[in-house]
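Q: Sequence in, structure out?
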Amino acid sequence: MKTKNLVLIALLVAVGAALYLVIPGFNGGMKPDFMLTMMFIGIFLFPNSRDVFLLAVTTGILSGLFSTFPGGFVPNVIDKFVTAYVVLFLVKLLKGQAKNFVASAILVGVGTIISGSVFLGSAILVIGANIPFIALFSTVVLPAIAINIIAFVVIYPIITTLVKRSKFDTSLSHA
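A: Exactly. Output:
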């Protein structure tokens, strides 16, 4: 693993954390998870198990620490691991198609659905939260899908341009 790539992964996670902290909550303080969007960008740039593991660990722990959901630490860690590896699997399954901007945006939406479902499901199962799954899915996860896709559409072209200019060793450099 190259130090430059580690630095880029750390920057992606840091930007996601900063965005998460400054964005106001809605529906009782629930927030869209911008670290999730940055994790997806990291997976698109570095689609290998080692880097995805690092992304999943860091985004899971930070999301858990910053979570406004009561007892949300463990569900966040579970959700990021499951989501990261499912999205990595989908990226590898789609091979070259995942490099298409529209396909990547769709993967962000699918990944957000997976993340929200795993988070709410693990909150119910692991911490025994008595929460209405459908109500929270409708009022938090569905808006988060739209927000994450919009954030991806704005942020991804900027990051890919910077990555290409900086000569990072990413999947973009092999395209």
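The chain has a mean pLDDT of 88.
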